[in-house]
Each structure stands twice: as C-alpha cells, then as structure tokens.
TrEMBL record:
Keywords: Ribonucleoprotein, Ribosomal protein, RNA-binding, rRNA-binding. One of its GO terms (cellular component) is small ribosomal subunit. This is Small ribosomal subunit protein uS14. Part of the 30S ribosomal subunit. Contacts proteins S3 and S10. The gene is rpsN. Belongs to the universal ribosomal protein uS14 family. Pfam families: Ribosomal_S14.
Length: 101
C-alpha cells in the first residue's frame, strides 16, 4: 500500500486540475495565438503562471485504484501489475488465468 498522504495529495491535484481546466485552456490559447499582440500573450503567460502549480494536468500521477501504487500501472485497467496478479490468482477477474507451462 502506498502512503495515504501521497494518494490524497494526488486526489487533490486531480480535483484542482479539473477545477482550473477551462481557465488554463483559455489562457494557453491566448498565449500561443500568433495573431494576438506580444503584450497580450505575455499577460496571458503571467496569469497562467499565477495559477496553482498543482492545477496542471502534467502533475497528476497515475495510481493503482486498489493499492495506490504509482509504478507498473496499466491505464486500461487502472491498476498496478501486482494488484492485477493478486486478483487474477484469486479468480476475481473473469477470463483471466495465471499462466503455467
């Protein structure tokens, strides 16, 4: 199990990213638009920099839904390889069997 504080910190980042998503997208659009004046684009960059760092989507870490493990994460299943193997060994995932040869 991952530390609860790390899992909660990541949940907070996810909430903040969702909250500021529209504002960030609008400011980024202004900042990258070449038809706008240089001053306008610079002001948009400053406003973007004043937003909370944790509201950026790139700071969110993919974590296992079962254990909170940050590494060896399968996006499609939203869990780590270890949690997947445990569930498969117990027969809780339909159609998945531990291989042996």
């Amino acid at each position: 199990m991952a530390k609860k504080s790390m899992v909660e910190r990541d949940k907070k980042r996810t909430r903040l990213a969702a909250q500021y998503a529209e504002k960030r997208a609008a400011l980024k659009a202004i900042a990258t638009d070449d038809s706008k004046s240089m001053e306008e684009r610079f002001k948009a960059r400053l406003k973007l920099a004043k937003l909370p760092r944790n509201s950026s989507a790139s700071r969110i870490r993919n974590r296992c839904e079962v254990t909170g493990r940050p590494r060896a994460y399968y996006r499609k299943l939203k869990m780590s390889r270890i949690a997947l193997r445990d569930l498969a060994s117990r027969g809780e995932i339909p159609g998945m069997v531990k291989s042996s040869w």
